[in-house]
Amino acid sequence: MSETTTAAEVAAPHRYTAALAADIEARWQDFWEEKGTYEAPNPTGDLAGDAELVARPKKFIMDMFPYPSGAGLHVGHPLGFIATDVYARYQRMTGHNVLHTLGFDAFGLPAEQYAVQTGTHPRVSTEANIVNMRRQLRRLGLGHDQRRSVETIDPAYYKWTQWIFLQIFNSWYDPEADAARPIDTLVAQFEAGTRQTPDGRPWSELSAVERANVLGEYRLAYASDAPVNWCPGLGTVLANEEVTADGRSERGNYPVFKAKLRQWNMRITAYADRLLRDLDALDWPDAIKLQQRNWIGRSEGARVDFPVGDEKITVFTTRQDTLFGATYMVLAPEHPLIAGAEDGDGTGSLVPDAWPEGTHEVWTGGHATPADAVAAYRKQAASKSDVERQAEAKDKTGVFTGVHATNPVSGEQVPVFIADYVLMGYGTGAIMAVPAHDTRDFAFARAFELPMRCVVEPTDGRGTDPAAWDDAFASYDAKIVNSSGADISLDGLGVTEAKAKITEWLAARGIGEGTVNYRLRDWLFSRQRYWGEPFPIVYDEAGVAHALPESMLPLELPEVEDYSPRTFDADDADTQPETPLSRNEDWVNVTLDLGDGAGPRSYRRETNTMPNWAGSCWYELRYLDPNNADKLVDPDVEQYWMGPREGQPHGGVDLYVGGAEHAVLHLLYARFWSKVLHDLGHVSSAEPFHKLYNQGMIQAYVYRDSRGIAVPAAEVEEHDGGVFYYEGGKVSRLLGKMGKSLKNAVTPDEICAEYGADTLRLYEMAMGPLDVSRPWDTRAVVGQYRLLQRLWRNVVDEATGEVTVVDAEPDDATLRALHKAIDGVTQDMANLRFNTAIAKVTELNNHLTKTGGPVSRTVAEQLVLLIAPLAPHIAEELWRRLGHTGSVVHADFPVADPAYVVDETVTCVVQIKGKVKARLEVAPSISDADLEAAALAEPAVVAALNGAGIRKVIVRAPKLVNIVPA
Length: 966
Known about the structure:
Elements: H1 7-11, H2 18-35, H3 51-54, E1 58-63, H4 79-93, E2 97-100, H5 109-118, H6 122-139, H7 155-169, E3 171-174, E4 179-182, H8 183-192, H9 208-216, E5 221-231, E6 236-238, E7 257-266, H10 272-277, H11 286-296, E8 299-308, E9 311-317, E10 328-331, H12 370-382, H13 386-389, E11 399-406, E12 413-418, E13 430-433, H14 439-447, H15 495-508, E14 512-517, E15 523-524, E16 537-539, E17 545-547, H16 585-588, E18 589-592, E19 601-605, H17 619-624, H18 635-642, E20 655-658, H19 665-679, E21 692-694, E22 698-704, E23 710-711, E24 716-719, E25 722-725, E26 729-730, E27 732-736, H20 748-755, H21 757-766, E28 774-775, H22 782-793, H23 812-830, H24 834-851, H25 857-867, H26 872-881, H27 898-901, E29 906-912, E30 915-922, H28 928-937, H29 939-945, E31 950-956, E32 960-965
Helix pairs in contact: 2-20, 2-26, 5-6, 20-21, 21-22, 23-24, 23-25, 25-26
């Protein structure tokens, strides 16, 4: 006996231990890989295979793309991966052809920042991270079809990302068809004269540049000078979602400024109504649908023009019924009528040279001229994020532009301000302010001593003088007052009637119309980075954008000497991006023959790259047909896995699992791409993901010392009523995220080494409902380890390693325990309730342990099949030891016998005046009313009452009825 061998190990050499688990798990992982156990055949193409499997009902199950982090996985990461694996295994065992795989969303800023710091090419570090993550995921026994795994950084993959971009670039949204159509169909309309050019000239008379500009107003992918979030400290433009509430970059915490830059955009706004409408048919959490609806932000109202000299300010309002109460106007600081006033470029035509006579001192911001005031305020507003600008609690700021507009219904002259609480990204970037009936306008009016007029009669007794109010009165259920003009009166009407009447009046005079507005903005699609997909676009000498032909795809990333965009002083807003790609002159400036009949010409490549969202907008399609070099996806393959079917009118993935943090952006962008591809005839599915499930988060305690610095969780002890770090005294404890920086990460490798992968899988699934966050507790893992040890002992002799099951029939109690477990686990598996499924398996296993003696083979086999989706390695091992030659992966899941699922009867005691008069055998589920009726009808009870009346019957179903005679 060696010094490390225990007496228990000698007595039970075949006990299920971490060492035995490691051996079992490695062997079966190798077996599954060698045999292609998880390979799902396609109906056609290079992955076509087993016709019997293809004939089965299909299930396409997906996880959200992981990013291959250099830190590898901690135990919080695989929660969703294990859950989809369990569900996929269950579906295979219930007769489905299951597609389940996992790829890597491998473009991203972390790898680029690492490249900047170390000089290591992003591809090198990313691929090393992928190798490590694949190793960790394989160790968990995840049943992925590895033939289908993809990486977004593979040129064979991003060739099709670029191809999809070109489909979007070469299409427009036809409102009559309510769908995207090829841009050539629009050109044909211009050529035929059935659609007029903006200035009415024939299409043939427009120059190439003019034609490109016209088409750019229609293309679903277009370049424009757009207001963007410019971060000098990072040297790149950021999406709104990458900017924190205090106007700083999410990465690096640098200031972010509003700037105008030429950027690529996706015209996702054209699909706003369809994105809203089609949500109804998706099986998604209501909270996620609500977030998407709010993000799209559809609102019905009216467009109204307010004259300002020779110009006009157009507003969108949902409360056109309150037009008579508009006492001032507010423009966004970026509004084109005032933008540029500080540099005299002519775009700020609204701003006069001097303040009008009698201008209120508080309106000027202390500046000598309107131009000075506007310039200073615009610079101040540029340093704030949209979220910060719209914060309800903040003080309202702004400045008078020096001009007045005319209220079109009253003829009243109203001052025009700029203020940061109005955003250029919503509506028209201008509002009519009705301070008596809008909280933000009320606060602004009070701050700037502006008049207020009540036009919606208060119903709370406050009166009609806003000067005496503490806040605005906002209501859709009140009468309109003080709203009469020369040829229109809204007085006495309800809000709905007033809105209809004023909208008709505006339209008749050509100064407004009913319209629909959206909060959704077009998708900014450019990044000033190296590590992203290059745009398949080149520019000719006139600056016209041309698409590369498909034969030139993929356009691969070139080598560069410096991976970082040029960065600037973090506070210097007056800077412009310089991208890494722009420094490679040999790659940027090229001579190409685009096959358009123009022959070889000189071009300049686009030097921005696509955002990291691009590759994840369509990856579900590449999983279907990953080796197809000729098509995005074979139509028959796409139809088979994702096509519309009963209950799924828009098609899509059968189950998509991931975090709720992607509720809006990734899901909205992927839906948009799917709809464009569907409209153009490339796919049959108009939605990417039919069913969405958001898993919770595995949390962990974060321990911080007196300085607030995180200390290693593994080096903390609890004693004497406190928590202590052995090097630094008492520490605080707070439940939060798990991560390397918080020094509380636990890796799956650690748990697998100590207990085995099956134990880790069971623990993560048993911690609680899948959609609820839960705290990690390493000490609790042993509970699932012991379950597997008991399961092993019920089948295998720990001393000899021999199977101990017998062929005898189980007793009635065991059959009832078995079939109740089968029935319950089946329902739980189908509904992703894996924690309760484990509880039922545990209950059955405990029943077998308590009965003593050898277990019936029938029961043992059914138990192994029940646990197989959850703990596949031990199940595969026991299945083989029980004499089966086929893999448990494709064995049939047990089916409950209804006769044994029905609950047995329980004994109900019937008392009269506290004395037992009868005992009834009743169903445990019997209702109080039925039990009372049965007790009163019992002959022994009738005899005992002997005709006496009844004052009260106390029922405690199913076990007690107490009768109190009158």
